[in-house]
Amino acid sequence: MAKAKKKGTVAWFKEKVVDAFMNSYRGLPCEVCGTTYGTCGHHYVGKGYCPRHIVTPENIIVLCIPHHGPYGKKMNPHSGCPSLYHEFEAWVKVHKPDLFEWGKAHENDTSLTMGKIPWKELYEAL
User: Fold this and answer.
1) How far out from the chain centre does Cα 47 lie?
2) Long-range CB pairs of 58-61, under 8 A, 24+ apart, other chains included
3) What does pTM read for this prediction?
4) Nearest to 61 by CA among 82, 20, 89, 19
5) CA-to-CA distance for 104 and 113, rounded, in angstroms?
6) Which of 3, 23, 54, 68 shows its CA 20 to 30 Å from the CA of 100?
């Protein structure tokens, strides 16, 4: 179990902002198949690779459980299978061209090159 963040710290503000942001995508229709069961937002440009866009709506695609993780043999970005990952990328390129182009334009953005994220101000704006 993760250790609770101390209230008022940067880590606490970040956690609250990211949780509120990601919760806004739960239950929306999967953009691949339309189901609403178990859906959540997926960061198209990975949040670990590019933390600057962790709360950027343009970086989110809503996916269901089978299309979001290693839970079967459907195309998804976390399958661990290169062919299923590439199938997902091809689907995005065709069906979500704006997301695909946004991802290409921002795949090298990092917090270090883009400045600090104002977590407290983002929290206060919730």
Assistant:
1) 6
2) 58/98, 58/99, 58/102, 59/102, 59/103, 59/106, 60/25, 61/31, 61/92, 61/96, 61/99
3) 0.87
4) 89
5) 17
6) 23
